[in-house]
Amino acid sequence: MNRTEWPITGCEQPLDRDGFGEKCAVVGVFGHPEAANLAYLSLYAMQHRGQEGSGIVSAHEGILLSHRGLGLVADVFPEHIIRQLKGSAAIGHNRYSTSGQTLLKNTQPFVVEYGRGGLAVAHNGNLVNALELREQLEASGSIFQSNVDTEVIIHLMANAKGDRTIDRVCAALARVRGAYSLVFLTPRELLAARDPYGFRPLVLGRIKDAWIVASETCALDLIGATYEREIEPGEVLCISASGLESLHPFPRQPRAACVFEYVYFARPDSKVFGRNVYEVRKELGRQLAREQPADADIVIPVPDSGVPAALGYAEESGLPFEMGLIRNHYVGRTFTEPRDSIRHFGVKVKLNAQADVLRGKRVVIVDDSIVRGTTSKKIVQMVRQAGATAVHMRISSPPTIASCFYGVDTPTTEELVASRLPVEEICRFITADSLGYLSEAGLYAFLRGQRGGFCDACFTGRYPVPVTDLGRKNQLWLFEVAEV
Amino acid sequence: MNRTEWPITGCEQPLDRDGFGEKCAVVGVFGHPEAANLAYLSLYAMQHRGQEGSGIVSAHEGILLSHRGLGLVADVFPEHIIRQLKGSAAIGHNRYSTSGQTLLKNTQPFVVEYGRGGLAVAHNGNLVNALELREQLEASGSIFQSNVDTEVIIHLMANAKGDRTIDRVCAALARVRGAYSLVFLTPRELLAARDPYGFRPLVLGRIKDAWIVASETCALDLIGATYEREIEPGEVLCISASGLESLHPFPRQPRAACVFEYVYFARPDSKVFGRNVYEVRKELGRQLAREQPADADIVIPVPDSGVPAALGYAEESGLPFEMGLIRNHYVGRTFTEPRDSIRHFGVKVKLNAQADVLRGKRVVIVDDSIVRGTTSKKIVQMVRQAGATAVHMRISSPPTIASCFYGVDTPTTEELVASRLPVEEICRFITADSLGYLSEAGLYAFLRGQRGGFCDACFTGRYPVPVTDLGRKNQLWLFEVAEV
Amino acid sequence: MNRTEWPITGCEQPLDRDGFGEKCAVVGVFGHPEAANLAYLSLYAMQHRGQEGSGIVSAHEGILLSHRGLGLVADVFPEHIIRQLKGSAAIGHNRYSTSGQTLLKNTQPFVVEYGRGGLAVAHNGNLVNALELREQLEASGSIFQSNVDTEVIIHLMANAKGDRTIDRVCAALARVRGAYSLVFLTPRELLAARDPYGFRPLVLGRIKDAWIVASETCALDLIGATYEREIEPGEVLCISASGLESLHPFPRQPRAACVFEYVYFARPDSKVFGRNVYEVRKELGRQLAREQPADADIVIPVPDSGVPAALGYAEESGLPFEMGLIRNHYVGRTFTEPRDSIRHFGVKVKLNAQADVLRGKRVVIVDDSIVRGTTSKKIVQMVRQAGATAVHMRISSPPTIASCFYGVDTPTTEELVASRLPVEEICRFITADSLGYLSEAGLYAFLRGQRGGFCDACFTGRYPVPVTDLGRKNQLWLFEVAEV
Amino acid sequence: MNRTEWPITGCEQPLDRDGFGEKCAVVGVFGHPEAANLAYLSLYAMQHRGQEGSGIVSAHEGILLSHRGLGLVADVFPEHIIRQLKGSAAIGHNRYSTSGQTLLKNTQPFVVEYGRGGLAVAHNGNLVNALELREQLEASGSIFQSNVDTEVIIHLMANAKGDRTIDRVCAALARVRGAYSLVFLTPRELLAARDPYGFRPLVLGRIKDAWIVASETCALDLIGATYEREIEPGEVLCISASGLESLHPFPRQPRAACVFEYVYFARPDSKVFGRNVYEVRKELGRQLAREQPADADIVIPVPDSGVPAALGYAEESGLPFEMGLIRNHYVGRTFTEPRDSIRHFGVKVKLNAQADVLRGKRVVIVDDSIVRGTTSKKIVQMVRQAGATAVHMRISSPPTIASCFYGVDTPTTEELVASRLPVEEICRFITADSLGYLSEAGLYAFLRGQRGGFCDACFTGRYPVPVTDLGRKNQLWLFEVAEV
User: Fold this and answer.
1) Cβ contact C481–B84 (<8 Å)
2) Both D288 and D214 in a single domain?
């Protein structure tokens, strides 16, 4: 084992899959007798944002009670555990699944004792000056237990002035830069904060007298909470027995909401940045049909994420929509890749092309994005083998040409096929008869109606916040030998 | 704990869900150096037919090697286990998931030592005279280790005359009645058998020089095998180094293929009883639109099983198809029902109704069947709460009025809402504005083109094979205390 | 993996340790509201007879409830499991720990359904004609699930005539030969049986109105039961609501109680074959001192089993007794042998020689037996390295020259050092200054006072019951791939 | 759950057993290619000092590799884990077993990242001003993750000046008071430190070119290392590629070695504070016989700890030594206390009194100490019930009248029976015919030959170091919900 260099991020992970990674989910509940239970259900509804591990911390009679574990929410929290997480306030976190080292200690919420009691934090996002801050903190005597950037925030809070937690949160966040949607829990308060650019989503809901903060509205739907509003970019919110206190302590910045939440990340039934995701995706499909028509017989999605855009494409183009690829929904984290002679199943264990549907047809395949191109190539080949006479690939977003530094697990820029090849060569690489991407203008044709702008660095390479840590190495000094 | 009475079946289970249960899956491989690996992949592709547990037995140098476990295929078979299952022949089984007692010892394949070596058996189906036969066998000194009907078949084989395994299989099956698709493994042979009525599916495929037998063709697709033909009703097939030997030892019977495989059980991308399931479901949806039109704005499926029929309905009716209900695909076996004050989530943990799609719309919901009616009621209410102004429920099969005795997990006849209430009262019970079922004639309008007939006892109460054991109690004398 | 040949025995195991293996323990309880709890405590007290796995079966309202698991009694039976094992009768079994394949399915009690209900059996011993009987049974249609000889007994019972369980037990046992101490449980009766030679111990005790049958009296001591008597050789005892029924259905045989129970197996605080084991061992030590004196300064035992004999030796010889070897009592099943450069710890992980006690001393080491000689050699070397100027090994039993076929795990005769070498060469092999064994006459000087004789085949090669299966191979047709 | 107050100690634990608790064990290895393996074996040899959990950290190519787990050493470290703990330096820790909450995060070594790399620490002992220091540290911005006092030391190091680790260790330890035997590991150095009073043992050994530091010499014996010397009280030792550097940075204090290590804690075959424990215990027994003779027939120990003293007592008194109480060595952490009607087994599951040895005898029982008196009472009753006509209890140490604050798990002073009752009333309470303790003078008659003095606060109430934290509450702000 050589000394490892590691990206420092709230949900850091190795990058070895052909796709953009989901990000973490956070949730906070205040003022409900079954706070941990609501947090559990919310995490369950947001399982798509992270499957590596989960944690919940509740506040009960001045003490923070915590439980964290690796695996899916429903496995980490059997009933007898939830029952022990007493109290009327709680926060929770889903961690994104990685194929690298999976450690319990990296599972959030982070829980520490500082100054006058317990503090728990859960983070979705990625700081771009965490290493710089860390060097400063270590030089002045701070000890770190992990290389997760969330720990930097806690140290900044511990070193901040001010008696009130919200003041310390504001002081700490004033020094960090990057993307963060955060929830904090103390024995008496729930706090939520969103960076001034509003990269990652965070919404506020209500269920009877209780407040709930969550990454996506699908969490509110499951527990029957009503949607109140977004936590605003740059807002720091403190919920306590005295009510809500909202501060905007940072200089105002142009909004830079992650447009990829619409393209791929969020659950289609969530409202994100004020809009229903399914509707946006369908509209992107319609726009794609207008920009990139195809002489074809049927439109098929790459399920599940491609379904809404394909419906939109079919609707606009007048071509019939078919489920030409069937997804095996039992694909889990533990699938054993078979041995040599019959290996390289790749996408085949997830998708099966239906010959009876595709045979003799000119097919439009609608997908949300192309990352390395290897998966798209396999899908095109599967569809052709199933008898399609022509395969036209249509992508409901512009080419992805640059890595994300704001909390999304992406390959390096070099690994992104669209950063290296023009569209016609990508088309050849994936062996399609034609390939069409949605234009940047098309992406925003429908979205611009919204207040504020978007971060589309992955499509444009224009980064709203410069990455201070870029030259720094996040050296890993500690390594836990795998427990299994 | 009182003395328990239990239905005796190849995949017996308690009946406490609102739905018809999936059935088991079987697979057999002969003549491939990675037989267990192919069996593993096949079971993985057929995970939808059973999630309680899985097992694989391989034949290697005269010995049968077995591994069985509770849970999903990918969890039961980590790579180091598959590597130990050496040999060029193997059989496997997926057991249907139950919410009752889940026991390793009930996981198949059944493996025993009899007479001249090892024998393994895996069974999909249900015998209707197993208790009668068992009484006879016990009276003559046979010892039983389970109350699974598959064990009856093994005892009949052990007591049969004949040196060849195929002769003993024929002799044993001559005495049983009911539904069975079986695979057998000895150190030298793979055998497959299907009852004379052909209730349950079973197909033969080929991959290079190797043979594969499986419940559904989606297994063949995943491993790249070609579909050869169905194992015929009443056929007993023996595959060995000498080649294939096929016998039809039983009196010919009218075919009675389970029509519910088309309606709900099979994977849409499988070819079952000679036809692509997706195409059949879509056609049932089209026919449903013709028989039961609705004055509505959109058509939405109950995902995932209702999608093809809803696509057909939308196509035929000209109404737009929308994903108005979004399914959480992370719903697993272990979901913890929350405690009192916020309980009764039921279908809500699986499905979320999209207000932005449904608001102000007159909605057609397409589902495959109504069992107890409680789930349908919740779905109708969800859709209405999301803002639909009218809710028209359309079912792509006739009313289910009778229990199945041929290997499907169904409620008792009394629990089936359609056995007690006329359609208009069911409509009122589920609080829909209108309810329309597919007619029996409509069900067969498209299917009758096929050779042979179907078992539709669940729709008609007409049972092709009388149930001998009906008055008998399957008393459970042994009970393993749960291991968790 | 080649076809494996395996010794068929009630507690079969591979033979790869330098020592005679402990044997299994059985227990039965009838007439106590906490029968399973008493069985649990009894198994706990008899843990020294088997550490591989344990099982308990209770009878409750006509059903047999069972739980079995691998590992120590206290781990297999957490409280919530014991609580589920309801009923006023129960039997239990400890299985001897092996370093080979450890399978749940080989854990006893064996539970089957036969004829008119459930039957559970637990066995301590080994049949010598099990393979012969098995061939006959398989030829007439019996199916076997294991290669444990206990299963033969159940099949013989199933094929026997007679309505009463006791009659079937008698009929079955009339056909088997070898060593057995058995307990049976039906929903209404507890039965106990001991072979006509009385090889293995089995005692009857009483606690209030309840009866208890156990391998050793230390089980009675723990639960506060009084010792009533031995189950007699050749006795078949049935305990039911009607009281005790005792039969002696077999021809009387000369008693052949295993003398090695006194030498090594039994717990020192047990009464076995009517005598306190500690007292016997101490007397063997005294006799050894008379027969094999040594010119030495101190006497030290090989703990724990050698302590009583060493105390006797010290007492008789007048030499001081010292704990010159200290045992690490945390040695368990799972100790990881270290890697190459520092390996071959062997006995050192269990025993440490005390230099401060041994330095400059002429030492008598008292042990109970020498099997392969390798352990004794290491102990002699340890003691010498610790500074002893002379090492005299004294063994409190005669040389072990022959394998056991009556339920003890022994090396093959060829592996027994005393079968190959005369005493003086063994002395040289173990590098001792002198070596003295107890004589056969000395062994019995004290024991002969008892009624009946002993089996000492391991010391003499005189086998009381000829081994019918000797030429037969116990071929293993089925093999479960390890679950861990 | 109420807010919990908790004693802050290196191996803190709840106090609910009738006995003084063992303390933790530490080990360090430097310069051996299998450092982790040697650490593993050393922890294994010192298992008696802590059974709750274990951890090892190794240094490999600039990174610290760690593994910790709950349970016994042999279970926490299977071979594949040890193999991953590469490097030529390692430290390890055994944590004392408690019946309260057992948490992985409290398992040591503690591993953190501070300033210029990784640092691991393992601690045996207890600081008496940890809470005071902690308040100061928290006030200046330090964040704590546990309430283990070891964490205070790390924070002090992080805040200390000095480039060299040894300087920071000296600076940190200059501020703490109490008992500590510590090992530290950095990627380049192994450090060991012992408090100026030398409360807890710590020795230095050598194996070829490698150095080893361990709590007890039995660790050296197992791995074949030679004993070099004690780490001296007040010594801070740094072992690196440059060799050994030893500092004595603190003011010299009178030695206060824990005399209870001799009485009970240490393994009898260890050399502690320069003397063989077994020899000391035997001599205490001899002195006890001189001071507290008894008119009796036999002497029996309470095994295992009472054996050496009983041997000494028997030798001096001329009475025969017998194993009148037999210990069940399979008693583990997981024993399920049986339910109501047959409960209160207490000491009976561990010890059985031998009627055949005790009947009609006047018995001297030798034990090392009496804590609450409840266990002694049960033992006296057991021995009497087994037929003893008189029971004389003899204790090989003075009455324990005061709690320990230097790292030993003791009841509160009020719970100690000897703090409340005079000897004659204790005798009545435990129902003995006579009771005799060793005198304080007798305790030291043999030991005073050694250089330096002893801490005997538990016998005298004279505390060498005042307890600063005494009035402070160690409030627990964080609580992990049990994982099982």
Assistant:
1) yes
2) no
